[in-house]
Amino acid sequence: MPNQKLLVSSHAPYWHNGSSISGKNYSIMLAALPAVGMGIYQYGMPALGVLAFSVSCAMIWELIMNLVMRRPVSIGDGNAAVIGLLFGMLLPATTPWWMVLVGTFIAIVVGKQIYGGMGCNPFNPSLVGIAIVMLSWKNYLNFNAALVNYDLGFYMVYPLAAVKHLGTSALSNYSISGLIFGQQTGGVGTTFGLGLIIGGLYLILRGHIRWEISLSFLVGVFMTAYLFNIADPDKYAGPMFHIFTGYTLFGAFFLLTEDSSSPVNFIPMLIYGAAAGFLTVLIRNIGAFVDGAVFAILMMNVANPLLDKIRPKAFGRGIEHA
Amino acid sequence: MIKRPFFGLGTPRLKYPVIDIDIADTIREIPLPQKVTLLLSPDIRIEDLILKAGDSVKTGQKLKLLDDGNAYLISTVTGTIAEISEYTGYLGRIYPAVSIDAAGEDQWDDEFNETGKTPNPENALAFFNYLPGNPDFTTLSSVQSAINTIIINGLDSDLLVTTNQFVVKTETGRLTEGIEYLKKITRASRIFIIVPPDSAALAEKTGVPVYAVNPVYPNTLPQIIMKNISGTEVLPGNSCEDMGVGFINAEAVVSLTMAFSEGKIPVDKILTVINKDYVPETVRARIGTPVKDVFKALDIDTAHGDQIIFGGPMTGTAVYSEDMPVSPNTDAVMIQDSARITLGSDNQCINCGECVRACPAGVPVNMLVRLLENGLYEEAAEQYDLLSCIECGLCSYVCIARIPVFHYIMLGKYEFGRVKSAEEPNA
Known about the structure:
The structure holds 2 protein chains of 2 kinds. Chain A has helices at 21-43, 45-68, 79-90, 97-110, 125-136, 143-146, 159-166, 176-180, 193-206, 211-231, 239-243, 248-255, 266-286, 293-307. By secondary structure, chain A is mainly α. Chain A folds into 2 domains: 22-140, no CATH class; 152-307, no CATH class. The radius of gyration of chain A is 21 Å and the shape is globular. The mean pLDDT of chain A is 93. Among the domains of chain B are: 268-340, Ubiquitin-like (UB roll) (Roll), CATH 3.10.20; 354-426, no CATH class. Chain B is of the alpha/beta class. The model of chain B has no long low-confidence stretch (mean pLDDT 90). In chain B, the strands form 4 sheets. Chain B has a 6-stranded mixed sheet, with helices on one face. Chain B has a 4-stranded antiparallel sheet with strand order 2-7-6-3, with no helix packed on it. Chains A and B meet through helix 9 of A and strand 14, strand 15, helix 11, helix 14 and helix 15 of B.
């Protein structure tokens, strides 16, 4: 039947709004560019090297896993690249190559592929990677030690470490406007507050991430820091300091909002964000780690399925059976 | 096709086309085809049929289908029965089909004019099963019927479809008259009509309460209309009819007027033909006309790889053959160019939550689809509200992973129904 006219017969609906996974992931990478650009401007080629190597490694690990697991090749959807980019942005510019290689292996393979790939990961893969690297090679992720050879013209002590060890007397070295414009040490792509906010707003307006999660996280950080601050102003820094330092803004717009590990209903999103914000400041102020964002978000990732049980009643479910 | 806007924070707003009266003046007549095909209910088995090829029939003639029982068919042309065949439809149902070779001039059968012209429920059941607009008088008129409210659709349930809107705008007089007949042949105590806001003034003339529906999808789906008008939500697994609310298309009401005033059962269907550019056109065709004849009359070319859809873009059913005939319930035929077909993917759900926000029934689609993908239909129905779904298709429309969510849900409902009916004798 070479010339027979055959019709396609798919299932309704026959329209689609045109959104796609790759489109979303490329938008996330686009939104990360302002912060990435600032990181490269500040730290030069080493920062670019870390980011580029991280993205490539993540994609190669994804490809290897696709081949090993005999699944369709999925590097084209951009998800592995996003994981690699976000992982690279969390690292200091001086991170050695082998750590990027191991970290992306953990992020892609342990954080995502062994659960079944995109959409099946219970944790944010980039955070799984950074958490294990952080626990394994503490000194490489200590920003004061890692960036000791840099002098960028501002106070080169990691703000959260300074406050943790010296109390609020260290605050005089920082100004909020300086922090917003990236005058602080930290990960390659996590210090430029303004860039992160612009990227985050872009993603929110495009509908790629949910404002409920980002906003409630920032409110959670603000409220908790504020309560600590009024309890002991000498020891604990104020809320604005906590919002513009460490991984707070990066977490709010890029890490916490990862689809698979975050809730989808309204109230759960608010609880998820606010609780992550609360835990972040709790770990920073009275925990063992300098920055609490990584573990706070991982903790709330665990709670995500439970939180999402809080959902509106479906059609006809609100009525008692007559 | 309506794409996601660049800035997309909220849920999709898909508007129904609201036709203006200039367009409404034009209706294209499709010429009488050489051969019509009439689909029967899938409950009827082809081997039980008492009709035979070679029987001659008249237009409007009631043809008894089985030896016992009341099943019948209304012939829509004058001619001879050519063959009896089968078509496979949605969910694999087999529809027996009777093809009739048309012999040109219509000769009208007199049975209805002589015995059926009194408007009462018995005559509605005896003659109106194949009325254009497909009214379900077994539910609306039967003695056991629990229907207390009837809602007349003056707005079609799917996008781009304007058939019933067209009828309200052009046939207001016959609609008003038809409502009087409707009151006589059903037992409902209340009758409403729903129309788009700009037709509200026109619809007031019919004398029944008018509800203007904001023409944004899915506001015209029966369950949503029922909730907005009466505040009652349909219980999971039930239909509106189970809850005492029946629906009838405006076209069917007008057909009642035509039947009772002229003594002839109407055999022409008004339908919206949506061409490859998604431009709708209203046509009138004889019931049973194969869609290829409709396309030919409108100069629409079909090509290999195109898709023909009976119904609208959100809830229609794709067919595999251009021989599929226009049926009493075919409000629209849509043709989609092969370049515009969006195919599903086998991606996993990425849990973005777009479907949950788009779902008008509050179903946790993100969880539901995980269970359905793994064939856990009973858990899906019990814990994740499978049966609350009102079948609007918005979940698939917004799915960023392009999972055929709606397809999974319909399969799930079908499989769940089979499990339940297999269990029933043992319960």
